[in-house]
Amino acid sequence: MTFENCTVVETKPNGAASLLTDVLGIRIKRELFKFHSQQDWVNKGQSRYANCGVPKGYYITVDAAGHVLHIGKCFMAAEKNGLYPVTVYELQTNWDALPNAQVTGASPALMAKRPVD
Questions:
Q1: Do 89 and 17 meet the contact criterion of CB atoms below 8 Å apart?
Q2: CA 90 to CA 101: how far, in whole Å?
Q3: Nearest 5 degrees, angle CA 68-CA 54-CA 52?
Q4: Could you state, in order of their start, the residue ranges of all structural domains in the chain?
Q5: This prediction's pTM
Q6: Euclidean distance between CA atoms 3 and 7, whole angstroms
Q7: pLDDT above 90: residue 87
């Protein structure tokens, strides 16, 4: 398998969500949506990400083997290697978003309120 410029990790039999939480220690809050093919990503990706209610930087996209997808080449590699569906998860954070922050276009750093010690 070739995943040029993509993050590749070994997977476990019980799926990508388990890999994220059990192996990498990434805490996920919930599944947001799936892409069932590269063409599905091309056709619907922009609108799904924009309308999911979760700002960029607060979600992670992984293929069926647990590879993190972050650029178009990764989605193409997932198609070539039969690793769809691709799932997008909301990440669990250690801080709360500001109550009236705008989701669209706001950076996570501007939206986040750090816990007070």
A1: yes
A2: 17
A3: 90
A4: 16-113
A5: 0.67
A6: 8
A7: yes
